Amino acid sequence: MVISTKDLTFTFGNQTVVKSLSLQVPEGSIYGFLGPNGAGKTTTIKLLLNLLKTQEGSIHIFDQELQSNRISILSQIGSLIEQPAIYLHLSGRENLLNRALLLQIPESRVEEMLKLVHLTDAAYKKAGQYSLGMKQRLGIALALLSDPKLLILDEPTNGLDPNGIIEVRELLIRLVTEHKKTVFISSHLLAEIERMATHVGIINHGELLFQGSIKDLEALSQPLVQIETDRTVDAANFLNKNNITVADVNDHHLYVPYTSKENMGEINTLLNQNGYTIYSINKQQKDLEKLFLAITQNA
Asked: For the chain, what percentages of helix, strand and coil (3-state, to nearest 5) are there?
């Protein structure tokens, strides 16, 4: 495990923000740390980076205890907490050169990072003129400059447009698959994490509700097919009689478990051929709120 915490607890005043948190982050994984705003994600990340001092419990990173091996551990971690710390009046390349000088890293590494995050063409453009997605990629390049084994990112897609989100996602997948990094990424967006994570931890009110592989999560967050038709209840009864399980039905829609695109098409055809008018049929993923409910009900 690259990160292993045991019974990690942190309190601000009389409010316990992190409660007995035991994380297990495997090497070579993209670990999605999920939870709504205010769940304790940023506090946990600050504890992992030793920006906040551990009060109770323990943190081991690279099989070493954090407090007693702080410098050797932190030298192998790159991090980005919410907004990247970049100089807007400097170009992207100058930002990286400035950091390289501070860290005593060869200048050749700057060119490598610009290429890795696809900013070579914008290297001489002022960072203040970058789009949000470009700024985030520059922030990740700064975090990667020292060639760390572990990358810790707090809400790196916050405020990004769809293109920016895709850019960051593709970069993180590439870092793990091609460059053998481990990525720990926090987010409140379940759908985004599902597209890139290999492992997931879900936190709410400081408590870890779920931890496991993305396959384990998919078993809990099984998507549904939402069908809008002219006779909702009749259609639900008809599907049940034809051995198609109806998971839920209301005045406007009925829902069946999603298994494949082909199966969704077969259900559509079956209803059409038997006189039902289909206004809409689509795949729906459980959102984080519904997933929380499913987890707490199963607990």
From this structure: 40, 25, 30
Domains within the chain, CATH numbers bracketed:
3-219 (3.40.50.300), 222-298 (3.30.70.790)
Using DSSP, state whether 181 is helix, strand or coil. Answer: coil
How far, in Å, CA of 287 to CA of 263, rounded? Answer: 22
pTM (2 d.p.): 0.75
pLDDT in tens, 178-228: 888 899 998 877 777 878 888 989 888 888 888 888 877 777 767 788 888
Residue 64, classified by CB atoms within 10 Å of its CB into exposed (0-12), middle (13-18) or buried (19+), is middle
Query: What is the number of other CB atoms lying within 10 angstroms of the CB of residue 122?
Result: 20
Q: How far is CA 20 from the centre of its chain?
A: 22
CA distance 277 to 229: 6
Q: Residue 102 class from Cβ within 10 Å (0-12 exposed, 13-18 middle, 19+ buried)?
A: exposed
Calculate the alpha carbon distances from 15 to 19, 21, 42, 50, 74 in Å. Answer: 10, 15, 15, 20, 28
d(CA 41, CA 74): 19
> Which residue type, as a one-letter code, is found at position 37?
N
